[in-house]
Design goal:
The chain is an alpha+beta fold. It has helices at residues 38-46, 76-87, 99-108, 120-123, 167-174, 187-196, 206-214, 243-258, 261-269; strands at 11-15, 48-53, 56-57, 61-63, 73-74, 91-96, 114-116, 126-142, 159-162, 178-181, 202-205, 221-223, 229-239. It has a single domain, classed as Periplasmic binding protein-like II (D-Maltodextrin-Binding Protein, domain 2). The longest helix has 16 residues, at 243-258. It starts with 10 loop residues before the first strand and ends in a 21-residue tail after the last helix.
Amino acid sequence: MEHLKSLSFILLLAVILSACNNVDGSDTSNSDDNNTDEKWEEIQDAGEIVVGTAGTLFPASYYEGEAGNEDQLTGYDVEVAREIGERLDLEIKFEIMDFDSMLTALDTGRVDMILAGPREESREKFGFSDPVKYSYSTMVVRSDDHSGIETLEDIEGKKAGGAATTVYSDISREFGAEVITYGNAPNEAYLKDVNNGRTDFVINDYYLQSLALTEFPELDIELHPDLRFHSTTNNVVMDKEADEFLENVNEIIADMKEDGTLTEISADFFEGNDVSKEPEEDIIEIEGIE
């Protein structure tokens, strides 16, 4: 698999919306064996699920070749969505958009689902499946002195690279850092800015940052060796009233975990790691960050 240096590692999003103090991350309030919903009927009538995704977030959603060619679109989130569609006997159509547009697109009905992590305010408006990915947060710092950071409290007064609306930027602000915001920036912009001192650190998903660093060995940066914090999940997100759709997706996710499909997809994109299982490391949870 070709790793593209121009791909962004903002968290998918993950990424980005990710992170939930309830590590399970599931939402069972919408389950009803006899329930139906308009969204599910609409999807069945169309014969397809429209999925919002970034197309720039390695290894969650990115192009292996020509950007804009859906046949070249891949990544963990992309292949999980495709597997869900196949098991529901529905086509999957991807809409490419930046992170900050995804929930709006879901809310307006432009897309039927996205993959992201639950937060309190989004739980009030959207339905979340059981997790398809578990992780936690780390930070990229300069190698020679860890950017002067040994504890989370040390980031007070320092500069963090990040997107405006992510939980990672919320963590930075919670501890008194100044967040330098980016648009749909590539990996290189974030990492070079830590290396050259424009910023001091970047908080993001452990797995995504680990892979991003392998693409830039010439930079004097590393993952902080001692700071692992804020457990996160990534889930399938849909309309809050899409009860039957959610129930069907949760059944498929359970089957994919049981038959090893999620483990296989994870191994393809996370260098053999199984992100479908909760990490065993001791993770610092941050009070007040959901």
